[in-house]
Design a protein that fits this description.
Layout: E1 4-11, H1 15-27, E2 33-36, H2 45-48, H3 60-63, H4 79-92, E3 99-100, E4 104-111, E5 116-123, E6 126-137, E7 161-163, E8 178-182, H5 186-195, E9 201-206, E10 212-215, H6 220-228, H7 231-255, H8 257-272, H9 278-281, E11 294-297, H10 300-307, E12 310-314, E13 317-320, E14 324-327, E15 332-334, E16 337-340, E17 353-356, E18 359-360, E19 368-369, E20 373-374, E21 380-382, H11 391-412, E22 416-419, E23 427-429, H12 436-439, E24 447-449, H13 460-469, E25 477-480
Parallel strand pairs: 1-2, 1-6, 2-3, 4-17, 6-21, 7-16, 8-9, 8-16, 9-12, 10-11
Antiparallel strand pairs: 4-5, 5-6, 13-14, 14-15, 17-18, 19-20, 22-25, 23-24
Helix pairs in contact: 1-4, 1-11, 5-10, 6-7, 7-8, 11-13
Length: 495
């Protein structure tokens, strides 16, 4: 059977992959492409996660695509709404027919002789191969096969059910039952108020608190603008309003952490009242934005605590018992259901092995170029969103830049582009974030430099200037011809 060849192979049919296909079609209309998706549905994260109350923790005016206005009233949207938005985008732009489902990518091998990638994927128990000129990874940042669960002593003794949110069982009935949710991140603060609607009581058990901020589920300004302006104009204005507010807030948190901390905790006190122990349960040991803030729409978590349907316990686990959890303080939590909202396992390029000219590439030793490519790895880019803003803001810009690179190669007759390290560069971890899921995995990720183009900016305005308007031929990105063509490297500058 002949191998299928496409100009661009996209891996992942989630939010990033569907957006990538749109940009490719718009900016490189002559290019052929296919999308390999390991699962059997479009949607990535938004199809995988099925736990109660699943929603975005970014507003949809920035998590939505730059080219497709978010029209629903709620800015903090539920998972099914986001999933239908992604699938609608795929249908509208005829992307769905390019997807090869149940193709789990395992290995990609680059040949400088032919300037092609050979990509091996597992499909129905068999290995199938594709070749492409450019490989664009849009497979997200975590392992789909398993979430992160620490080894809890005595877990095997517990007589009830233990559930990880990444693998939520359809048959789980928690109505009228005692529930303990272990964790204090975005998943936990989503689950607790939702489960508390029907459970007997829900306890959020945390080792240490997280910053929790309430904001309205609906964006009043956005909804008003939509009644006055054309859809794309209203969407663009709202998008920039939210981007600028987010950047302002992030910069303020970096420059005046104590002041921002005081304000955030003051807001929690306003919700929970003067008698609530905010110092123990909602005052983190770190500064705002050292980890991602948790968003609760319309104060739903605080309301459920005030109503007595949920509560927060800050303590350490001694052991699971037959009927619940024994804490180090001596306190016992009774439970029928324990939910381990203990996080994700980050994974680079969905765990795919990368081989360059017969040698396995150690990407953890590579440098990240513009937050999307790897030093000395040709014709491969990866979409990775922001830690301090919406994922899609960066994914959209990355896709635009990939298209600019491909068009530059076409204009100059180049077959490949590769970022080469220019001299000694002071290095830093790829993400400057103290969240557990990040610190556990940073040794698998590339390094970043402290100067451009090796610096990973967590800043949409800087990236917009660099990626949409900056020079593609910047002296670091080098272009060349396949060695089989016996040609010399391309040095021609394009306008």
């Amino acid at each position: 059977m002949a191998m299928e060849h496409v100009d661009v192979l996209i891996v992942g049919a989630g939010l990033s992959g569907i957006g990538a296909a749109y940009h490719l079609k718009k900016h490189c209309p002559g290019k052929t492409y296919a999308i390999l998706e390991g699962r059997e549905a479009i949607g990535g994260t938004w199809d995988l996660f099925r736990y109660p109350g699943i929603r975005s923790d970014s507003d949809m005016y920035t998590l939505g695509y730059s080219f497709k206005p978010w029209k629903a009233a709620k800015a903090i949207a539920d998972g099914p709404s986001i999933l239908s938005y992604v699938r609608e985008t795929a249908r509208e732009h005829d992307v769905d027919r390019h997807i090869r489902f149940r193709h789990l990518v395992k290995r990609a091998s680059w040949s400088s002789e032919t300037a092609t990638w050979t990509v091996e994927a597992e499909h129905d128990g068999l290995t199938v191969k594709f070749t492409c000129g450019f490989l664009y990874m849009c497979s997200g940042y975590y392992r789909y096969s398993a979430g992160y669960t620490p080894d809890f002593p005595g877990a095997e003794r517990f007589q009830g059910r233990i559930v990880h949110p990444q693998h939520w069982p359809e048959d789980l009935d928690y109505a009228g039952k005692k529930v303990v949710v272990i964790g204090s991140g975005a998943t936990a603060v989503t689950l607790v108020p939702e489960m508390a609607k029907t459970a007997a009581h829900v306890v959020m058990l945390q080792r240490s608190p997280t910053y929790v901020v309430s904001r309205p589920a609906e964006d009043g300004v956005a909804n008003w603008l939509r009644t006055k302006l054309p859809a794309m104009t209203a969407y663009g204005v709202t998008r920039w309003k939210n981007v600028l507010f987010q950047m302002l807030f992030f910069n303020m948190a970096r420059k005046k952490p104590e002041k921002v901390k005081e304000r955030l905790l003051g807001m929690v006190r306003e919700h929970l009242g003067p008698d609530y122990d905010v110092a123990t349960h909602f005052t983190p040991r770190y500064n705002p934005w050292d980890q991602r803030l948790c968003l609760v729409p319309d104060a739903d978590l605080f309301d459920s605590i005030k109503a007595g349907t949920s509560s927060v316990v800050t303590d350490h686990i001694e052991t699971f018992t037959e009927t619940g959890i024994q804490l180090k303080s001596g306190k016992v939590l009774d439970a029928d259901v324990i939910v381990t909202a203990t996080g994700l396992q980050m994974q680079l390029l969905s765990g795919m092995e990368v081989v360059v000219d017969g040698k396995v590439a150690n990407l953890a030793q590579s440098m990240s170029y513009k937050g999307m490519m790897f030093s000395d790895v040709p014709n491969l880019a990866s979409a990775f969103g922001y830690t301090n803003a919406s994922w899609t803001l960066k994914a959209d810009l990355t896709s635009e830049y990939v298209c600019r690179l491909i068009n530059q190669m076409d204009r100059t007759g180049a077959d490949y582009c590769v970022a080469r390290q220019d001299g000694d560069i002071e290095v830093a971890p790829w993400l400057d974030f103290t969240s557990g899921y990040v610190t556990r995995a940073m040794n698998q990720f590339p390094k970043q430099g402290l100067r451009k183009p090796w610096k990973v900016h967590q800043n949409y305005a800087l990236d917009l200037v660099a990626l949409r308007f900056g020079k593609v031929d910047d002296g670091v990105m080098t272009f060349g011809r396949k060695t089989g063509a016996k040609a010399t490297p391309v040095t021609a500058k394009a306008a």
